[in-house]
Fold:
Amino acid sequence: METPVIPLERPTIDPEIETHYTSRWDESARLSSTIKGRLEQARLYDFLGQWFPPLPARVADIGGGPGVHAGWLRDQGHDVVLLDPVQRHIEQANAAGITAELGDGRRLPWSNESFDAVLMAGPLYHLPDARDRRLALREALRVLRPGGVLAAVAINRAANLIGSTLANTLLTRHGIVRDILETGHSADNERMAHCYYHRESELRSELISAGLRPVNIFGLTGPGGWLTVMIDAHFKNQPYTDKLAEHDPLDTALECSRLADRMPELVAASSLFLAVGQKV
Structure:
């Protein structure tokens, strides 16, 4: 017998996250406004094209923000529904013609086994408490059909250390970086509100414990992503040097990360992880 779905009240969202995405950060422009964002987008679509079910699949984009990824999935021919806790994101997604509703990834408003695939490109790194991550994964698996695919993005525990070093801000952010390396979280992190950073082994364990088999973890941005971090930090509004202008840095970063996919040990060299698993 199917478990009844309890109607959702307005999602409980930390005010800092609401402020971050409403007043400080335009998520709708993030992927197109930086080279790192364009790399992340291109790589994610490569992996989703490889691992998501054949068209047309019913896809839940949980924590899908303003709908950039949902729009791509829809344009490929999938039937996509988006859920996000930020009102601004819902308005932006609806304006883009995406079916979107306000909600909390820890308490989904959908019926059991109603989706062929689930994308979680944000919830795991916005839930610092492991209990909340377990709940979000359990809910995602509840709405996923047996044999369905879940893809989740997480941030590498070492990303702040390397990124701050390349941007030459490590000495300023030393305490924040140290806290993240030790615990996966810093309450003083000015880059992103309530952000959690995973170890690769920890991410794999969380998805296996939720009931996914097998679990594959990829370097989403790969080692090539660090070239884009350096360029965004130092050349965003500056002309390239002759050497940087010789080849499109995005093409270089993409080729580097695609070559690195052949060597599983290089997953840890990526700032972002993509975990893909199948519901047993």
Q: What stands out?
A: The mean pLDDT is 92.
